[in-house]
Amino acid sequence: MEVFVLETAKYKRVVLKLSGESLAGDQGFGINPAVVEDIAAQVKQVREHGIDVAIVVGGGNIWRGLAGSAKGMDRAAADYMGMMATVMNALALQDALEKIEVDTRVQTAIEMRQVAELYIRRKAIRHMEKGRVVIFGAGTGNPYFSTDTTAALRAAEIEADVILMAKKGTDGIYDRDPNKYKDAKKFEALAYIEILNKGLAVMDSTATSLCMDNKIPLVVFNIDDHKNIVRAALGENIGTTVGGNV
Ligand code: UDP
């Protein structure tokens, strides 16, 4: 696919973290095809700006390990099921992107050779150099981790400039739950250590520490606005920035 660089973008390579929930739309579970199509169209626009895109997708719209284990299931088994759920989402995204002629590769951290490539760092980078969007499925391949940690890990490995974290129903990071407290204050920018110290519910502490230690900036933004993936990728000041110059 030929790509024209329309302007000088702030980022050369981004990791887009999509929670499973963000694929579910208002139904809250499963995969909503119209929502996935909309996300794919935005990713296509980001590519048209010449920005490399890797996507890490979650699985919470189908299965969440912790919730499974809370019901008495073995934690590791429940987590492997969660990783399988992320692969389903990855394939849905791939399908939507390929339908609008965006070249993609799905790479999974657990080998499923009939379905997708195995994650190989250098191959992932090569795909992006060729203009392909790489979608990472199956998280890190390890139980007891999250796809937020996967986003941090892959961003470090592929030397992404930023993690763009799309959230559903919230437009950034607040000092307390804005759905419960009217006077909750939104942060424009903050440091990773503040997330840990204040116990802010942005991402788990493993993911936060990995980003902090490797100095990977994060932008948390609202996916309900249909232009926000492009705006975030172009470096517009939307949502909350973590670990930038703070
Ligand atoms: N998971 C895991 N290891 C990983 C990534 C994910 O075990 O490296 C499992 C875990 O059970 C998690 C589920 O997959 O609950 C779905 O991922 P996550 O909760 O991060 O998805 P999201 O909240 O982004 O939809």
Profile the largest sheet.
9 strands, mixed
Span of the ends, CA to CA: 37 Å
How many individual domains? 1
Nearest-angstrom radius of gyration?
17 Å
Q: Please tell me the CATH architecture by its name.
A: 3-Layer(aba) Sandwich
**What top-tier CATH class fits best?**
Alpha Beta
Average pLDDT figure: 93
> What structural category do the secondary elements indicate?
alpha/beta
- Contiguous helical run count: 8
Instruction: Using the coordinates shown, work out and report the CATH topology.
Output: Carbamate kinase
Estimated share of beta-strand residues: 15-25%
What general outline do the C-alpha atoms trace? globular
Helix content: 25-40%
Q: Which ligands accompany this protein?
A: uridine-5'-diphosphate
Strand order of the largest sheet: 4-3-5-2-1-6-8-9-7
Question: Order of SSEs, N→C?
Answer: EHEHHEEHEHEEHHEHE
Strands, count: 9
Q: Provide the low-confidence segments as ranges.
A: none
CATH 4th-level superfamily: Acetylglutamate kinase-like
Task: Provide structural commentary.
It is a single chain. The protein is of the alpha/beta class and 246 residues long. The protein has a single domain, classed as Acetylglutamate kinase-like (Carbamate kinase). The chain contains 8 helices and 9 strands. The protein has a 9-stranded mixed beta sheet with strand order 4-3-5-2-1-6-8-9-7, sandwiched between helices. Helix 1 packs across helix 3 and helix 5 packs parallel to helix 7. It starts with 12 loop residues before the first strand and ends with a strand. The model has no long low-confidence stretch (mean pLDDT 93). The site of uridine-5'-diphosphate has 24 residues, from helix 2, helix 3 and helix 5.
